[in-house]
Amino acid sequence: MNDKHELIQPDRDQPAIAIHLVSKDSFQSWAKTLSGGQRAALAAQKFDGSGYQVGIVPDGDGWFAVGGVANPDELSSWCLAKLAETLPAGTYRVEGSEPGPAVHGWQTGQYAFTRYKSENDLVGPRILLTKQVKAIDQALAEARAVNLVCDLVNTPAEDMGPAALEDIAAAMAKKYSAQLTVTQGDALEREFPMVHAVGRAAARSHSPRMIELVWGNEKAPRLAIVGKGVCFDSGGLDVKSSSGMLLMKKDMGGAAHALALAELIMGAHLPVRLHLLVPAVENAISGNAFRPGDVLSSRKGLTVEIGNTDAEGRLVLGDALTRASEEDPALIIDFATLTGAARVALGPDYPALMTRRDETAKALIDAGTSCDDPSWRMPLPEAYVEWLKSDIADTNNAHGNAFAGASVAGLFLDKFVGEGIDWAHFDTFAWRPVAKPGRPKGGAAYGLRAAFRMVQEKFGAKHS
């Protein structure tokens, strides 16, 4: 995304290239309003109004664009994304209607990760006009947040280690006058022993830490946002295969979501007392790596037998959730790239959502439906808690069968959330393996906008 230009701007009747939207059903009747030459131009482009098709139509000394959508009267976030990806640089206006929710895909469709390229072939910016001026600021903010997640996840682990996550949180704290606390070294071992144990094998430059940011009125309802910040996951001594390790720069995707959501909340000045927690580690292999069979202490006081060193994300989250619970928040939301089982069940596009309360799940699912950011609820079955039993400790971090992996991981986390606290857990992939319009291949935000919309509804309307 080109930060020098706002891609969505107020429509003050300035000159702009027209975009006409048609469906496959309405195309033939609409085409009758065109000249023979214009129809021939579209025929040469094999344009028939199918979804995501883009056509260029000559018009005197100029031209206009036409895009295929499912229903021109009910636009989704992605209806204009292909146009944004393929049209020449310029300023555009949708004829006959407002772009509405499609302003989101217009922006994300122009995202590109170019940090490591000496040259790029980016074209832009393509600016879209709208008369819905009041919606522009949130549309811009949400697209920036999504693109921030993409940037952080796409960055290799060498440049996106625990210290880099701290730097990002520090920049946010400075921008929004928030309080930043970072716990490292001996203090980390005392206060967050599982975070320390998981991260202690990493190089000194990637040493583990707990990052906490606090913002907002002390009297406002407290909202805790927790993000798994495993900046690279080798699997530890239960080492991953080379193919399994290839994408593990994305294992801090939960932290990326949490940071982006925190910035959305602070930027919108929501009336909450925000508590952001990012346990930032690298799960590396060296002589002091934690081992299968070790028993770790935790901030909560529970002892944890290590059944698998590759189930490390739930360990660092356990300490973070305990710390969040100590402040008795009205709601905790955590994001984590936690289990392969969630991806087997739901694929990449749906984060697995687990909550203690039905109304919280419904609020998040409804919010996601309203902004094309869906999730799918999975259970926290009490019957499976026994699978985490340990013969020598209070709990094991992994179960010995191949069943219900995502839910069992959620049940482990539930042990560390304070009794009676409203809690939602997103097990997200944070990666898009195949590009779609407005959703490029690579780092991806799933559940971010849904969580923001839900938080706005829950706290903004009632307490502003």
UniProtKB/TrEMBL annotation:
Pfam families: Peptidase_M17 (PF00883), Peptidase_M17_N_1 (PF21337)
GO terms assigned for molecular function: manganese ion binding; metalloaminopeptidase activity
SUPFAM superfamilies (alphabetical): Zn-dependent exopeptidases (SSF53187)
UniProt cross-references to CDD domains, sorted A to Z: Peptidase_M17 (cd00433)
Any one annotated GO CC term: cytoplasm
PROSITE patterns with a match to the protein in the record: CYTOSOL_AP
GO biological process: proteolysis
Family to which the UniProt record says this protein belongs: Belongs to the peptidase M17 family.
Protein name, per record: Leucyl aminopeptidase family protein
